[in-house]
Amino acid sequence: MTPSAITPRLALCNEVLAPWPFERQCEYAAALGYRGLEVAPYTLQADPLQITDAQARQWAAIASDHGLQVSGLHWLLVAPAGLSISHPDAAVRARTVQAIERLIELCALLGGSYLVHGSPKQRSPQQSVDDALARATEVWVAAGACAARFGVTYCIEPLARDQTSVVNTLEQALAIVRQAGLPRLKTMLDTSSAGATEVEPLPALIDRWWPSGDLVHVQLNDRNRRGPGQGEDRFAPILAALARQGYGGWLAMEPFDYVPDGAGCAAHAMGYVRGLLEAAAA
Prior knowledge:
Blueprint: E1 9-13, H1 22-32, E2 36-39, H2 53-65, E3 69-73, H3 90-110, E4 114-117, H4 129-150, E5 153-156, H5 170-180, E6 185-190, H6 191-197, H7 202-209, E7 215-220, H8 236-244, E8 250-253, H9 262-281
Parallel strand pairs: 1-2, 1-8, 2-3, 3-4, 4-5, 5-6, 6-7, 7-8
């Protein structure tokens, strides 16, 4: 591999260390060598919409005191209950848009630069997939417009078919992004979902789509739902493709199955990915 002069920044999805207090999460992640935390809002407060501006700024300061940034937000619509971007009821969707707009504002207050919209249960249809997709698209477009006002990027996350039937591939997400034509509405690559769903190898997808500027963020996880390096998936070719594209953004570790536990999984992911990056640059 020809190494890129730009090295990606490694972030940890903070729910891996829940239920530790946020300050302890920062202390541990920083000690491992992470530079950022990708925050699930429900880990900060049971109802994230009740987080005040002052609280958000305080958490940003705590991260900074430990040499970290809040890189962005993910798992956006887990709480409060009852949100959906595809629901047939316009009132439910309106409440969801309001929630998303507040989360976008909180992301900016926390110092984050992006939001990842996964939340499969809150977009899966109660009606036909086509109708659900049309309604979800309207919400994503509204989110992209709001993100521009706060200077952050809103990413539609393609998810595996066993999680949702609404947007499973990069091509489907990119179609929404391109039709919207909004500078702050983009898509991203979750290697677990993509590895389970995409037909084309992930490095080839990166080489094809990254130059468009519409694919902007990466979460690293194995198809077995564990952290990178804890399964059969090979991550060196993915990192090589990102290096070819000169990617210096965030790489977020997002395991779901924590082996041996959250702290150990976070440490293993850091050691594995940093080792691959160092080997590539040698």
